[in-house]
Amino acid sequence: MGVMAGMSACIGCRTVFMYDPDRVPSIPIDPATGLPPDLNPDGTTRQPDPQAVARMTREPVCPRCCRAANIVRRLNSLPLFPEHDTLDELTDDQRPLPG
Questions:
Q1: How far is the C-alpha of 25 from the C-alpha of 70, rounded, in Å?
Q2: Residue 16 lies in a domain
Q3: Which of 2, 20, 76, 77 is deepest in the core (most CB within 10 A)?
Q4: For residues 19 and 3, what is the distance between their CA atoms, to the nearest angstrom?
């Protein structure tokens, strides 16, 4: 049985990678600002604007950026991002069907 494949740029590093859209780590981004709805341009956090939350889309994060983010997240005792789920790491029975 195959899975659907997605391919796009990582929101962190802009590297194009393939992934399973149902399993890829992602973060919410407000298209109007290019930032998560609860983040200010200076990096401080704020209460999300309801309009920004309504506009947000989930953007994929590659395994390399997840590993980098997890270094900081571990130091701050925050939940970690999964560091897997690219198609390169799937077994043959999980790969998308050709065509």
A1: 12
A2: yes
A3: 20
A4: 10
∠ Cα 90 79 50 (to 5°) = 100
The count of domains in the chain is 1
Q: Environment class of residue 5 by beta-carbon count within 10 Å: exposed (0-12), middle (13-18) or buried (19+)?
A: middle
Predicted TM-score (pTM) of the model is: 0.71
Whole-angstrom Cα distance, residue 22 to residue 25? 9
1 within a domain of the structure (yes/no): no
Three-state secondary structure of 19-56:
ECCCCCCEEEEECCCCECCCECCCCCECCCCHHHHHHC
Q: Say if 65 falls within a structural domain.
A: yes
